[in-house]
């Protein structure tokens, strides 16, 4: 029983992670790494400040990773993923716009 489950898992893992590996899967992985980097940037900035902060890098990683994930979702024709990443991109870009506007206003 355990051997059969292990063998079934091995077949499944090969099909998911090796057999379908192509350029688009690599794009998806890169996108996911960028998207995950935003959490790392936020965590490091918060640890350094000793309080919860959201650094500018968080929003740049959000846009870069979110955009690539959106493109990947379009290629995969996944409506749930398309809507989720599309809405997220709007929020990330809006936050950057607000930050840039505030920065310009403070320089005046």
From TrEMBL:
Domain Lipid A biosynthesis N-terminal residue range list: 27-98
Domain of life, per lineage: Bacteria
InterPro entries: Lipid_A_biosynth_N (IPR011499), UCP028440_lipidA_biosyn (IPR014546)
SMART domains, per the entry: LAB_N
Pfam families: LAB_N
Keyword check for DNA-binding: no
Record field: transmembrane: 23-41, 53-75, 81-100
GO molecular function: lipid-A-disaccharide synthase activity
Gene Ontology process terms (BP): lipid A biosynthetic process
Region forming the signal peptide: none
Cellular component, GO annotation: membrane
Keywords per UniProt: Membrane, Transmembrane, Transmembrane helix
Protein name, as recorded: Membrane protein
